[in-house]
Amino acid sequence: MEISTRSGFLVALFLWSSLFQFDGILGEDFLRFVPLVTKEGRRTIVSTESGMITAVDVYERYHGPYGPYHLQFITLDTSSLLLPVILHADMVFYVHSGRGTINSITEDGTNRIDVKRGDIYRLEEGSIFYVRSHPDSAREKLRIHAIFNTILDENASGAFVGAYSNISDFIRGFDDEVLQMAFGVSEEVIHGIKAAEKSPPIVHFEPKNETDEVDWREGIFEALIGGRHAIGIVNAKKKKEQKTKALNLFERKADVENCNGWSIAVTSKEFKPFKGSNIGVFLVNLTKGSMMGPHWNPKATEIAIVTHGQGIVQVVCPGNPSGVSNEAPKCENTKFKVNEGDVFIVPRYHPMAQISFNNDSFVFVGFSTVAGQNHPQFLAGKRSVLRVLDRKILGVSFNTANTTIDQLLDSQVESVMFECTSCAEQLEREIEEEMERKKQEEARKREQEEEARKREEEEQRKREEEEARKGEEEQRKREEEEVRKREEEEARKREEEERRKEEEEEQRKREEEEARKGEEEQRKREEEEVRKREEEEARKREEERKREEEEARKREEEEARKREEEEARAREEEERRKREEEEARRREEEEQRREEEEEQRRREEEEARRREEEEQRRREEEQERRRGEEETRREEEEEEARRKEEEGRRREEKEEARRHEEEQEEEARRREEEVRRQEEAIRREEEEDELEADG
Ligand SMILES: *[C@@H]1O[C@H](CO)[C@@H](O)[C@H](O)[C@H]1NC(C)=O
Ligand SMILES: *[C@@H]1O[C@H](CO)[C@@H](O)[C@H](O)[C@H]1NC(C)=O
Ligand SMILES: *[C@@H]1O[C@H](CO)[C@@H](O)[C@H](O)[C@H]1NC(C)=O
Ligand SMILES: *[C@@H]1O[C@H](CO)[C@@H](O)[C@H](O)[C@H]1NC(C)=O
Ligand SMILES: *[C@@H]1O[C@H](CO)[C@@H](O)[C@H](O)[C@H]1NC(C)=O
Ligand SMILES: *[C@@H]1O[C@H](CO)[C@@H](O)[C@H](O)[C@H]1NC(C)=O
To answer: Distance (Å, rounded) from C-alpha 231 to C-alpha 402?
Structure first.
């Protein structure tokens, strides 16, 4: 029985993992989730002589500075008072022990709740409340476990202002005038309030008369604000005070009850004050050696506080969200032992099982944050969700024979709570073993690391030694090598030196040769140059000479030309002169000729005339002789006269010719003068031309 249950339980958990994958519902907000907060892990908020308040912030999968759920553990000694505070969040509480009174003031009026162990109640956000513990010193301390739903507050202003705030601070914060006006009291009252020493949150409080409720309350306010007037409460007081009853979990019929334990859950449906709240309360009492069967909440996260005993809680992770960085804590299957005062959180969809030890019962009260209608789903027993599934499919899912599945589902009748003797012990052992294993593993790991480190060091050392050795070896080799190389180098150098010398020798020879050749060439070149220069000079000289000759020639030519020109001109002149002389002579000759011709003609005419005259005269002589000889002498006289006349005429003619000749000479001289003038003009022109050419 025990074995089958256990195996069924484990298989069921395995099944869970294989059946569902819940990527997305967890998200990275899940990272803040911590499944267990031990009693030692609580923060202390208030600690006075009369009581203390500790707190735990739990994360479901939301994040924020305080988390969405704030838990407070308020402990009041007998005859103590938690001074009024203003609630910032819905508060659901469970009275773990003791007795007391909780007074709350809301818009609807005042409300007084007498509370005792097992009571649950809810105070709405915005209400003012204060708590008084029972004065009976024989009684237990008043212990209240409260949860504050701070989700809204967290978002509202960006900063969480705490679950509640101090009312005296609230009032003291205002200016005197404001308070005076607001409360209609005298200045002294306000001063009295303000001057009063600030009270700690929890104070000792002894009512003057237990039955005198009015005095009792006035006493509170006196203690609170230092005056007898219960200001602010006055109006509320006028309204009818309600007396509400809390719900006591122990007085209610359990939802599930058998010899292995009982459990009860209260939601907003079942308890009127819870209405509008998303928080429910549950209580589980597992008797010795029992188990709260594997189950999960599809809509609720369970935040449980161990109120009695010890137990083992196993939580299965439905799967890790994908895309979460490796640094984030992993969602893992966990099992852990819880002690009284510890808080453990099981997020929705996480299958869980709680198991009690054989030697004690295991009681835990919890708050379930319900996001809707929640029905816990049990995996084993008659109520198992697995029974709904087809067994063949289950067989395939578990990869086992029909019979195993049948066994798994049919052996356990109970679903919620069943016997599980020594289960917790075994699990504890496993946990311890695991922890031991982990420790050992860690130790081993550390050792291994140490060893690895040592090995590493050793290796390092060896490597270094080796390297050193190698280094030395290499050094040696290098040195040898170097020596060898040096020797080689030297040999090489020597060779080179020799070669170099040879080369140098050769070079020298070559150079000498070349120098010689060079000199030869140089010499030749120089000679050549000299020769060339000489030639050049000769050439130049020749040219010079030629040029000079040329010039001389030119000059001569020029001179000759000029001379020739001169001569030509002279010749021309001469010729012209000759021509003119010739002309003159010719003209003279012509003249002469003409004169001679004239003379001739005249002589001929003279001749002719003389012949005629001769004739005439012969005829006349004849006649005359005939006429007589007397006439002869007259005639002779006449002849004589005519001859004289002729003589005169000839002289005249000669005179004429001489005059003419003179005229001719005059003419020739004039022409000569003309020629000379012309020559003069030509010479002037030439001179001008030369000047122009020079200019
Ligand atoms: C918180 O406020 C943001 C905007 O300021 C809003 O988008 C978001 O829904 C709010 N969350 C809750 C839980 O009210
Ligand atoms: C109220 O405020 C005062 C001063 O800040 C502080 O000493 C006291 O503890 C507070 N009381 C509560 C109940 O928080
Ligand atoms: C309280 O008041 C009642 C009557 O009102 C009286 O009988 C009783 O003695 C008083 N107790 C104390 C402690 O003063
Ligand atoms: C739990 O159950 C056991 C056995 O029935 C009982 O002795 C014990 O008082 C119960 N505890 C609470 C807190 O109810
Ligand atoms: C019950 O047993 C557990 C484990 O065996 C042990 O840790 C625990 O102290 C015991 N409780 C009591 C009350 O003996
Ligand atoms: C499994 O169960 C089915 C029906 O219940 C049956 O027909 C089949 O033979 C079974 N197989 C085995 C291996 O038992």
So the answer is: 75
Please tell me which residue, 694 or 248, carries the higher pLDDT value: 248
**600-621 tens-digit pLDDT:** 888 888 888 888 888 887 887 7
Q: Which two tokens stand for residue 575?
A: 């010729």
Backbone angles phi, psi at 285, to 5 degrees: -120, 105
* Token couple for 495: 């060779």
- Ligand 2: distance of its center to the CA of 650 in Å? 197
Mutational pocket test of ligand 3: of 136, 210, 211, the residue with most ligand atoms within 8 Å of the beta carbon: 211
Q: What is the mean pLDDT of residues 488-503?
A: 85
Q: Which residues contact 8 (CB under 8 A, 6 or more apart)?
A: 380, 407, 408, 409, 411, 412
> In this structure, which residue's CA is closest to atom 8 in ligand 6?
402
Per-residue model confidence as pLDDT tens digits over 134-150: 888 778 899 999 998 76
The pLDDT of residue 141 is 93
Domains of the chain: 30-210+217-224+241-250 (2.60.120.10), 252-320+330-421 (2.60.120.10)
Strands 242-243 and 109-116: parallel
**Dihedral sign computed on CA atoms, order 384, 388, 392, 394:** negative
Q: How far is the CA of 69 from the centre of ligand 4 (A)?
A: 28
Weakest-pLDDT range from 163-177, 296-310, 372-386, 426-440: 372-386
CB distance 305 to 365 below 8 Å = yes
Does residue 82 contact residue 51 with C-beta atoms inside 8 Å?
yes
Q: Are strands 128-133 and 142-149 parallel, antiparallel or unpaired?
A: unpaired
The pTM of the whole model exceeds 0.70: no
Q: What phi and psi, each to the nearest 5 degrees, are found at residue 543? A: -60, -45
Task: Please check the confidence at residue 321 and state whether its pLDDT lies above 70.
Answer: no
Q: Give the number of other Cβ atoms within 10 Å of residue 15's Cβ.
A: 20
What one-character-per-residue DSSP string does 578-589 give? HHHHHHHHHHHH
